[in-house]
Design a protein that fits this description.
Blueprint lengths: L7 H15 L3 H7 L14 H7 L9 H13 L4 E5 L5 H12 L4 E6 L2 H14 L5 E5 L2 H4 L7 E6 L6 H8 L3 E10 L7 H12 L5 E6 L5 E6 L2
Parallel strand pairs: 1-2, 1-4, 2-3, 4-5
Antiparallel strand pairs: 5-7, 6-7
Helix pairs in contact: 4-5
């Protein structure tokens, strides 16, 4: 039996989005948005301003990273997944495919920029996975305040400086054995921002065991022990 990931609708939607992502000149587009990828994270910009400036940039997991998300979601038999940073919905499609193959559930995902959220919603429908996705538009620190039931897996792929506040918001809902997946941890632009995040994950009092994998620009996995 093939996975939902290999279904015609999902494969066609992912191939279209990933091809469009490959065609981008990311350095030029980020420069046009006023972001120096070799510098520090633009803390002087609000999250909303940065989202508006980058509304046309496809920011997603790599193909390899997406398949890793699918495998991890299946492996922990996740039924409730939380995603910070929808963008155009590429990573959401990998997560929702796995949730469907786990027997059903929900991917709660949040996006700050409204144009991207509308496009993502269309992509979920095109892939036939929209019934599994709860897309919330707005600041994740507000949209993720209400979560029902235990959370099995969290993907942190939104703005670098908001990942720790979002994790702290979701943490009370994490079940023992839940996975936290953090994308792009090896980016030069994020090194300073990640110091506090890594300190939180590495503090034994917070109950995580973590490992960073050399997938694309670095994927950190953190297992919630208790």
């Amino acid at each position: 039996m093939s996975s939902t990931l290999e279904s015609d609708a999902v494969a066609a939607t992912l191939n279209r989005l990933l091809a469009a992502e490959d065609e981008q000149d990311l350095a030029a587009e980020w420069a046009a948005a006023g972001v120096d990828l070799a510098g520090d994270f633009p803390a002087e910009m609000s999250a909303a301003e940065l989202a508006e400036r980058t509304k046309d940039i496809i920011m997603s997991v790599s193909r390899e990273g997406g398949r890793l998300l699918y495998l991890l979601t299946r492996a922990v038999r996740a039924r409730t997944v939380v995603e910070f940073g929808t963008s155009f919905g590429i990573s959401t499609l990998y997560l929702a495919s796995a949730v469907r193959d786990n027997g059903g559930g929900q991917v709660v995902t949040t996006e700050l920029q409204q144009d991207k959220a509308r496009a993502a919603k269309e992509n979920f429908a095109a892939a036939g996975l929209d019934d599994l996705v709860d897309l919330r538009v707005g600041d994740a620190r507000e949209t993720l305040k209400e979560l029902s039931g235990p959370v099995d897996l969290v993907l942190l792929d939104g703005w670098l400086d908001l990942r720790l506040p979002v994790l702290r918001l979701v943490e009370p809902r994490l079940r023992p054995g839940a996975l936290v997946v953090i994308d792009d941890v090896d980016l030069d632009i994020g090194r300073g921002v990640y110091e506090e995040f890594r300190a939180h994950i590495d503090d034994p009092a917070n109950g995580y065991l973590s490992l960073t994998l050399p997938v694309h620009q670095g994927v950190q996995l953190a297992l919630k022990l208790h």
